Amino acid sequence: MTAPAPHENTGEGCLAAALRTAADCFYTVPGYPVTTLGEACGAVNTINEKVALEYALGDAVSGRRACVILKNVGLNACMDPLMNVAVQGLSAGAVIVVGDDTEVKGSQNAQDSRCIGRYAEVPLFSPEADDLTTVAEAAFQASEHFSRIAMVRVTPAVLATAAEGTPPARTDHKGTIADSSLTMRGRAEAAEMRQRAMVRWAQEQPVPALVYPPHQGRVPSCSTVSPPAGDPETMHSRGFARTFCRECPYIPLLEVMQEKNLHPVLDIGCGLLAKNPPWEVGITGYGLGSSPAVAATSTGVALIGDYALMHSGLSALADIREKGLPVLVVIVENGVLGMTGKQAAPDILPYINWASPVIVTAVDTDAIRAALVPEDRLKCVIIRGTCPDGEDHETVEC
């Protein structure tokens, strides 16, 4: 479908043209003042802003530049994946265009999104009329150079101002996905090293429209982890990797995923251990409940726990079904929060019966093998098991 033409010779029209030149994929949740900007870019509407950003991150992991267009209050729903990207990294650029409703004409509160740049430690641009043709490409290049989201903050006044120009040619760069050998601390250390490089970049010469990092002055870090004296911590330098409990009932699931060469996007919880030796299955996701939407636009396979799904993954399943996206969502149902003390998790079945999930027991390797076959639709597979009492995660010497 052809995108509606934005107002000619306005900031909105200028920015829309620049974004269409710089990006491959667009997602949006309509809202003043960026509703028509999203339409002008042909953006796909999503059920909420978090899902929109997760789709964009799946694209970015797969090498496609992606843009999310949302209003100021919608940015609040994105904070978990937004904060995680700087640590986990990306391959292609991902940019959030956020419209601040400065006069509170169509919102319930007023927010200045420029403060998010420092909080999330991401490059943030706040363009004036003269910057609108170049800001999109600049933001995508910054995202790729520093392997994190970049943000472009606009206001109704900027979108309505008179502006015109031709966007610059697109020049793609390759970002960095966090090295699988790094520990979680090592990933945070590597992210902090990139943040310091980002500050040096901003202060060596003025970058048009860049608000964060500032061109001058001290830039304190929001991280609690300092850059290491040497290299970031790896499992090898630490001497061990964490892995599953000795009697974990889900070992057959990992064996089948290895056998089938599946590459799931992992969610927060015990499933994250699948990326460590000896299994080395999957890629790290971008926050609790993020794996279904990220997988829908990347590997096509998600591995998520029952609690993570209930926490913030159900809306993604609904949107995936609405759009008819093919993704295999493997749900580990152990009925507890395995990494925080085995608190009880809700029964998920009443909430996903509409997806007609396949249910198999964790010890039935043949049934798991038969179930883990991706189809041309949303397919949910529940793997039921019981965590052993009195066991803790094991370690593997590296």
From TrEMBL:
The record ties this protein, via Gene3D superfamilies, to: 3.40.50.970
Question: CDD domains of this UniProt entry?
Answer: TPP_PYR_PFOR_IOR-alpha_like
One GO MF term: oxidoreductase activity
Thiamine pyrophosphate enzyme TPP-binding domain span? 282-346
Sorted UniProt keywords: Metal-binding, Oxidoreductase
SUPFAM superfamilies xref list = Thiamin diphosphate-binding fold (THDP-binding)
Looking at the keywords, is DNA-binding present? no
Name a single GO biological process: organic acid metabolic process
Could you tell me what this protein is called? Thiamine pyrophosphate-dependent enzyme
